[in-house]
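user: Please supply your own:

assistant:
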Amino acid sequence: MSGRLINILICSLIAWIGLLQAQDSVLEISDLGTEQIRYAGFILNQERTVQIKAVGAGGESKLIHSSSYQSDPNNMYAYAWILNSKTREMVWRMTINNTRKVSWTEYNRKFNGKVRLPEGTYEVYFSTVEPFFISTDGGFVSFNQLLKKVLGTEDDWDKEAKQWMIRISGVDEVLDERDIEKEQTTWLNKTIIHLVNQKDDSFEKRGFTLTQPAQLQIYALGEGFKGKMFDYGWIIEADSHERIWMMDEKKTEYAGGARKNRMVKKTIDFKPGNYLVYFKTDDSHSTTEWNANPPYDPFFWGIVIKPAEKDFNWKKVEKYEEKKKKVVASITRVGDYAYREAFIEVKKPTKVRIFALGEGRSGEMFDYGWISRAEDGKIVWKMNYEETRHAGGSSKNRLYDGTILLEPGIYIVHYQSDDSHSYEEWNARPPQQPEMWGITIYNLGDKNAISKIDRLQAKQKNILAQLTQVGDDEYLRKDFYLDKKTQIRIYCIGEGDPDEMYDYGWIKNRDNGEIVWKMRYKNTVHAGGAKKNRMVDTIISLPAGNYRVYYRSDGSHSYRHWNARPPYDERNWGITIYRLE
């Protein structure tokens, strides 16, 4: 045998031995306690079958019909899974179906089998997060309850928990936690924006600019259930403040772990422009501390924006720093039972951004803002509960952040609060931006097109008569004159039910004594607050002549003396007559 052939055989033998040694590398996660997530990883240099042995804990069957947002449909509470580092997809996990009960234990279950995986880098997780609830769907109770009601003593529990582990053999290289963190950092460095590893009570934003059109993928993990999102992201076009995308629970997928863990992977065509990416969380269930089983990709809790195109040209992406928008009017740090207003003049059609924080619940707002035209009192925008979203803290903290177009004219910006939960004193968790409690208007157009003015400049010339902020037991009247046939707008708020009106207005022609208009229940609509708050907003035509407007109130439920919830526009309790040009 030639020397060259011997060398080749020796090299081949060394390589074969090295390959065997590499395939003999073993990943192991053990010594697991409760309320934690442990992780490690491994590399496969080619497609291969690996041997997995794992012990965890769970119930006897899946929770298919559970209605609890905290429950995990897989009904496991100590279990392992494997994630593909490149795709961020779960490729294997322990389940009730692929495990069997460990003898002489209450809840422990084991997996012993082979799994074939393609070449790649993988992350291995083991979760022992204690659920903060008691399942009533045939599942398990919390650890503390188990200790007291099922296992008897803490020593018994510790003995059972000591068996939890996962061992994966036949891999080429084992990665520790620091290696996995480096892998994740490398992955994130190839993204445009990432706001991940989000903690409790977090509110973050970051911007980017596109100089050319691009297809971008959104990858977001958050918390939501039955149509509502609690931890979620959204994207706006920075210059117009138009919302491009928002995480909608109905359009999310199950993200693993508790049912409330939701995920989005969506590709969107973006036009050239400036964009802001936001992510906010509430006060629980995040990487700070999971109060139920975590998602499969726990450290990516948040939002990622990355190229969807293979050969993406990175030169068309630039960093974007949000410029301060000009504040036109600001009514903030509003306290209890307050009414505040500001006046603005619009000289040409202008888009404005409205940022309003207030209190609302069950479809109704209690602290809120609105904008009306000074010339005729017409409301052009109001803070409706359906158009708000959670503002952080208590669920009743609501936020409206949007844009409207204002036509030329003079406008009044209003803000009204009730008698509790305000910047003065919170009776529940405050929002994430408490100092903004109120309403702020930003100019998104020409800086000279809109400006703030004082009350005298905003004098409402078109008001013919006004009897508002009416108290108990009042009988008020005011005269007005029309020199020609005129269209008038009647805006009247009062109290009534289908049988009778108790606080109401009417108009009489003084020349002939005829009542030309009267507030009747059948012609009213709900004015917000208590059902008995009624409103009329109508236009009628009156001939030239002398007129008198009246308003009568009974002995209860009036301006600042409400015995039930006040109306939406409580300051105008009474009647106002406008001349329409």
